[in-house]
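re: ur question from yesterday

yeah so i grabbed the chain u mentioned. its 218 aa long if i counted rite. heres the sequnce exactly as i have it in my notes:
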Amino acid sequence: MTYTLYNRYGSGGFAVEAALTLAGAPFHLEALDSEPGTVLLESFRSINPWNQVPTLILPDGTMMTETGAILIHIADTFPGEGVGPDRGTSEHAVFLRWTVFMSVNIYEGVLRLIYPDRYTTEKEGEAGVVKAARRRNHEAFLVMEREVQSGTFLCGETMSGADIYLAMLCAWHDRHDALEDLAGCRALTHRVAGHPGVAPVWQRNFDHRLKTQWGRSA
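ran it thru and got these C-alpha coordinates back, copy pasting raw so excuse formatting
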Protein backbone atom coordinates (compact mmCIF):
# COMPACT_ATOMS: atom_id res chain seq x y z
CA MET A 1 0.00 0.00 0.00
CA THR A 2 2.64 2.48 -1.13
CA TYR A 3 2.18 5.85 -2.84
CA THR A 4 4.43 6.95 -5.70
CA LEU A 5 5.22 10.64 -6.02
CA TYR A 6 6.72 12.04 -9.20
CA ASN A 7 8.43 15.37 -8.65
CA ARG A 8 11.60 17.29 -9.31
CA TYR A 9 13.39 18.87 -6.38
CA GLY A 10 12.23 22.42 -5.76
CA SER A 11 8.89 21.95 -7.51
CA GLY A 12 5.36 21.84 -6.10
CA GLY A 13 5.65 18.21 -5.10
CA PHE A 14 7.63 19.42 -2.09
CA ALA A 15 4.32 20.20 -0.35
CA VAL A 16 2.99 16.74 -1.21
CA GLU A 17 6.16 15.03 0.01
CA ALA A 18 6.03 17.00 3.27
CA ALA A 19 2.35 16.10 3.77
CA LEU A 20 2.97 12.40 3.11
CA THR A 21 5.87 12.51 5.56
CA LEU A 22 3.77 14.16 8.28
CA ALA A 23 0.99 11.64 7.69
CA GLY A 24 3.38 8.72 8.06
CA ALA A 25 2.23 7.39 4.68
CA PRO A 26 4.53 4.94 2.92
CA PHE A 27 5.64 6.44 -0.38
CA HIS A 28 8.30 6.20 -3.03
CA LEU A 29 9.70 9.39 -4.52
CA GLU A 30 10.52 9.34 -8.21
CA ALA A 31 12.79 12.37 -8.45
CA LEU A 32 12.89 13.47 -12.09
CA ASP A 33 16.25 14.58 -13.40
CA SER A 34 15.24 18.05 -14.58
CA GLU A 35 15.18 21.56 -13.18
CA PRO A 36 12.06 23.46 -12.13
CA GLY A 37 11.14 26.04 -14.73
CA THR A 38 12.12 23.80 -17.63
CA VAL A 39 9.79 21.72 -19.78
CA LEU A 40 9.51 18.06 -18.80
CA LEU A 41 10.39 15.41 -21.33
CA GLU A 42 7.50 14.47 -23.60
CA SER A 43 7.87 10.88 -22.40
CA PHE A 44 6.40 11.93 -19.03
CA ARG A 45 3.02 12.42 -20.75
CA SER A 46 2.59 8.66 -20.55
CA ILE A 47 2.27 9.15 -16.79
CA ASN A 48 0.58 12.57 -16.69
CA PRO A 49 -0.96 13.76 -20.00
CA TRP A 50 -0.68 17.39 -18.79
CA ASN A 51 3.09 16.81 -18.45
CA GLN A 52 3.46 18.49 -15.08
CA VAL A 53 4.52 17.58 -11.57
CA PRO A 54 3.60 16.76 -8.92
CA THR A 55 1.89 13.56 -9.93
CA LEU A 56 0.84 11.13 -7.21
CA ILE A 57 -0.07 7.51 -7.83
CA LEU A 58 -2.32 6.17 -5.09
CA PRO A 59 -1.84 2.65 -3.74
CA ASP A 60 -4.69 1.36 -5.94
CA GLY A 61 -3.10 2.87 -9.06
CA THR A 62 -5.31 5.98 -9.28
CA MET A 63 -3.43 9.01 -10.54
CA MET A 64 -3.79 12.39 -8.85
CA THR A 65 -2.49 15.75 -10.02
CA GLU A 66 -2.87 19.34 -8.73
CA THR A 67 -1.00 20.09 -5.51
CA GLY A 68 -3.99 21.55 -3.68
CA ALA A 69 -6.23 18.58 -4.49
CA ILE A 70 -3.54 16.14 -3.38
CA LEU A 71 -3.06 17.95 -0.08
CA ILE A 72 -6.79 17.82 0.61
CA HIS A 73 -6.88 14.11 -0.23
CA ILE A 74 -3.96 13.30 2.07
CA ALA A 75 -5.56 15.28 4.90
CA ASP A 76 -8.83 13.38 4.49
CA THR A 77 -7.12 9.99 4.16
CA PHE A 78 -4.97 10.45 7.26
CA PRO A 79 -7.11 12.33 9.80
CA GLY A 80 -5.44 13.37 13.00
CA GLU A 81 -1.94 13.35 11.52
CA GLY A 82 -1.53 17.10 11.25
CA VAL A 83 -2.09 17.51 7.52
CA GLY A 84 -5.55 19.03 7.86
CA PRO A 85 -8.30 19.73 10.42
CA ASP A 86 -11.12 17.26 11.01
CA ARG A 87 -13.73 17.20 8.26
CA GLY A 88 -16.95 19.04 9.04
CA THR A 89 -15.30 21.57 11.32
CA SER A 90 -14.97 25.29 10.71
CA GLU A 91 -11.22 24.82 10.65
CA HIS A 92 -11.61 22.32 7.80
CA ALA A 93 -13.67 24.85 5.87
CA VAL A 94 -10.85 27.36 6.32
CA PHE A 95 -8.34 24.73 5.20
CA LEU A 96 -10.32 24.11 2.01
CA ARG A 97 -10.76 27.82 1.35
CA TRP A 98 -7.12 28.75 1.49
CA THR A 99 -5.82 25.64 -0.25
CA VAL A 100 -8.06 26.32 -3.23
CA PHE A 101 -7.39 30.09 -3.10
CA MET A 102 -3.64 29.52 -3.30
CA SER A 103 -4.01 27.01 -6.14
CA VAL A 104 -6.09 29.38 -8.25
CA ASN A 105 -4.58 32.74 -7.41
CA ILE A 106 -0.93 32.16 -6.52
CA TYR A 107 0.31 28.87 -7.98
CA GLU A 108 -1.18 29.74 -11.36
CA GLY A 109 0.45 33.16 -11.11
CA VAL A 110 3.82 31.50 -10.54
CA LEU A 111 3.32 29.53 -13.74
CA ARG A 112 2.63 32.79 -15.59
CA LEU A 113 5.95 34.15 -14.32
CA ILE A 114 7.91 31.07 -15.34
CA TYR A 115 6.11 30.11 -18.54
CA PRO A 116 4.66 33.36 -19.97
CA ASP A 117 4.63 31.84 -23.46
CA ARG A 118 1.75 29.61 -22.36
CA TYR A 119 -0.47 32.64 -21.77
CA THR A 120 -0.04 34.66 -24.94
CA THR A 121 0.32 33.90 -28.63
CA GLU A 122 2.41 37.05 -29.16
CA LYS A 123 6.08 36.93 -28.23
CA GLU A 124 6.09 40.64 -27.50
CA GLY A 125 3.23 40.10 -25.04
CA GLU A 126 5.20 37.88 -22.69
CA ALA A 127 6.68 40.79 -20.72
CA GLY A 128 3.17 42.04 -20.01
CA VAL A 129 2.09 38.61 -18.81
CA VAL A 130 5.01 38.54 -16.37
CA LYS A 131 4.33 42.07 -15.12
CA ALA A 132 0.63 41.37 -14.53
CA ALA A 133 1.39 38.04 -12.84
CA ARG A 134 3.88 39.64 -10.46
CA ARG A 135 1.37 42.34 -9.48
CA ARG A 136 -1.54 39.94 -9.07
CA ASN A 137 0.53 37.45 -7.08
CA HIS A 138 1.57 40.11 -4.61
CA GLU A 139 -2.03 41.23 -4.21
CA ALA A 140 -2.96 37.63 -3.35
CA PHE A 141 -0.13 37.41 -0.82
CA LEU A 142 -1.43 40.56 0.85
CA VAL A 143 -4.74 38.74 1.35
CA MET A 144 -2.86 35.85 2.96
CA GLU A 145 -0.84 38.28 5.06
CA ARG A 146 -3.98 39.45 6.87
CA GLU A 147 -4.65 35.85 7.89
CA VAL A 148 -1.28 35.16 9.52
CA GLN A 149 -0.37 38.48 11.12
CA SER A 150 -1.27 37.18 14.58
CA GLY A 151 1.54 34.65 14.44
CA THR A 152 -0.76 31.64 14.28
CA PHE A 153 -1.26 29.29 11.37
CA LEU A 154 -3.97 29.54 8.73
CA CYS A 155 -6.33 27.12 10.48
CA GLY A 156 -5.54 28.09 14.07
CA GLU A 157 -2.77 27.12 16.44
CA THR A 158 -1.69 23.98 14.57
CA MET A 159 0.23 23.75 11.31
CA SER A 160 -1.56 22.11 8.40
CA GLY A 161 -0.93 21.31 4.77
CA ALA A 162 -2.28 24.75 3.88
CA ASP A 163 0.60 26.34 5.80
CA ILE A 164 3.10 24.10 4.04
CA TYR A 165 1.58 25.19 0.73
CA LEU A 166 1.75 28.88 1.67
CA ALA A 167 5.35 28.58 2.89
CA MET A 168 6.44 26.98 -0.37
CA LEU A 169 4.72 29.67 -2.44
CA CYS A 170 6.11 32.44 -0.25
CA ALA A 171 9.64 31.09 -0.65
CA TRP A 172 9.14 31.05 -4.41
CA HIS A 173 7.76 34.60 -4.28
CA ASP A 174 10.92 35.68 -2.47
CA ARG A 175 12.87 34.84 -5.61
CA HIS A 176 10.92 37.38 -7.65
CA ASP A 177 9.72 40.14 -5.30
CA ALA A 178 10.61 41.75 -2.00
CA LEU A 179 8.74 40.58 1.09
CA GLU A 180 8.97 43.74 3.21
CA ASP A 181 5.18 44.06 3.51
CA LEU A 182 4.68 40.33 4.10
CA ALA A 183 6.14 39.96 7.58
CA GLY A 184 3.48 37.48 8.68
CA CYS A 185 3.94 35.26 5.64
CA ARG A 186 7.70 35.46 6.08
CA ALA A 187 7.48 34.42 9.74
CA LEU A 188 5.13 31.54 8.89
CA THR A 189 7.53 30.33 6.21
CA HIS A 190 10.35 30.22 8.76
CA ARG A 191 8.11 28.26 11.18
CA VAL A 192 7.10 25.73 8.55
CA ALA A 193 10.61 25.30 7.14
CA GLY A 194 11.96 24.76 10.66
CA HIS A 195 9.28 22.26 11.70
CA PRO A 196 11.02 19.00 12.68
CA GLY A 197 8.84 16.92 10.36
CA VAL A 198 9.20 19.29 7.42
CA ALA A 199 12.77 20.59 7.70
CA PRO A 200 14.57 17.62 6.08
CA VAL A 201 12.17 17.67 3.12
CA TRP A 202 12.47 21.45 2.81
CA GLN A 203 16.26 21.43 2.86
CA ARG A 204 16.50 18.66 0.28
CA ASN A 205 14.18 20.57 -2.06
CA PHE A 206 15.21 24.17 -1.55
CA ASP A 207 18.63 24.69 0.02
CA HIS A 208 20.30 24.46 -3.39
CA ARG A 209 17.82 26.84 -5.03
CA LEU A 210 16.75 29.59 -2.65
CA LYS A 211 18.69 32.61 -1.45
CA THR A 212 17.16 32.50 2.05
CA GLN A 213 17.93 29.72 4.51
CA TRP A 214 14.34 29.38 5.62
CA GLY A 215 13.82 27.95 9.08
CA ARG A 216 17.33 28.75 10.19
CA SER A 217 17.70 32.51 9.73
CA ALA A 218 15.24 35.25 10.64
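noticed a couple things. The mean pLDDT is 95. also The first strand starts at residue 3 and ends at 7.
anyway ttyl
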